[in-house]
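[Backbone geometry]
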Amino acid sequence: MLKLFYLILLCLLVSSCHDATNNHDKNINLDTFSDLRDEKYSLDIVDIREHISKIASEDGVALPMDGFVNKYYKEQQPFLWINRYGIYDRADTLLNLLKGIDYYGLSKDAFRVSKIEKDLYLARSLDIESSNDNLNRILARLEYNLTKAFLRYSAGQYFGFVNPDYLYNSLEEYQVDSLTTRFRQLCDLKVLRPDKKFYFRAISHILNDSVAEFWHTTLPKGRLVGKLLKELDNPNLTKSERLRILCNIERCRWRLRGMPNTDLHNKYIVVNIPSFELYAFDGEKSQTMKVCCGEINFKTPILTSWIKRMDVNPQWIVPKSISKGFLHNYSYMHKMGMFVLDREKGKLAPEQVSYDRIMSNDQYIVQAGGKKNSLGRIIFRFDNNFSVFLHDTSAPWAFKRTQRAVSHGCVRVERPLELALFLLGERAEEMEDRLQYSMSVDFINDVDSLKKRNIDRKRLVNTLNVNPPIPLYITYYTVYDGICGQLCYYDDVYGYDDVLIEKLSPFIE
């Protein structure tokens, strides 16, 4: 930069801003800088890249998109916001967009808004004589911070700032044996995460001067998020309420792999754990019922799946953790219609149960179907990695409670026959009588066999396929609109809001 190249650059820097804002330097021309020889104003592309590298190294990586930004500049990829002749107008477009992110409860500091605004002013006004800055450092900061802010916002809004599968599955440790400790799996949403394809698509929009267009495609969509954003604008919110709103806005951002979000379905079921309610939607029609979910030590997992079939009067294979309490209570096992299923010997009487074989999975305690069965009269099955289901219950008293975290992880439904008819849809009319009969028939349990007394076998139903399968969402919204349409606040029964707020705190106000 031995000649007057930097003078030409500085003039063009000034003229590059097309905003309608007042620019006191708009009439600056080459003569204005004809006597400048200070290295502070000397442009050096190599020096700019060195400054970016240093900034990235000191900045670290707080989010996956930060790592992409660092790698992008480490690989000497093209500048996105500056060039040899000035600052692109799209930098002003992005700054104006960033100034409005508080609408979403996002922190301007996390997106370097004030730093970007200050550096844009310095680059255009050249008001750096009394500082230790030079033009290369300013342009380096602008290039890096603009890219980081754009990708942070775009990826964060489109995919969420937190990965729930990682967050919730790193909360609870349990000991497998004396040497092995693992984390309990509490979530299986399989959310989409940003990848190279997304980042390069975002960059292509920068290069094509379509920053605003891409920005708006990343916004979370849906009925609930619209209501949450409106509630966030309520000036009377307490700090606690505001944080809870921000948590639930984040949950609305999570995009599900291989399964659309709820608003894109016509018929679907939502179980919301904090509200202890099930919501069944079918177009304009909807219904709700109470549910019981897992207690604090046996949390109901957050997941999505498809309800594929219903089994009437199912047998219950008692989990190992519960079986231990029955091992020597033979009279109770007989009374409740329980027997032992041995891998080698088949069906056995309760008295032949073995603790060692139960623990080694060579024996199982099984409860026969019937009115005493803990699963109730019907179970709704869907694929999942937790062995949890929706089902009826032999203990309906729990639905009278406000706090209904009482199960070992499964979801107990208050009105299972209604849910069954909802799933069957138009086929339900011919099936309703048979379902009612099958769910009320009295089975006589015996150790050796299940005998039936005065039963019309033609009316019995054992298994019904749900065709087509119905989407199921087991969610965790502590602020939710349900069927009534009004936002309601619910207790954070599993403490998930607290851990989510901690992870979101660098990015929210």
Remarks:
- The radius of gyration is 31 Å.
- Confidence is low (pLDDT under 50) at residues 1-21, 23-37, 446-450.
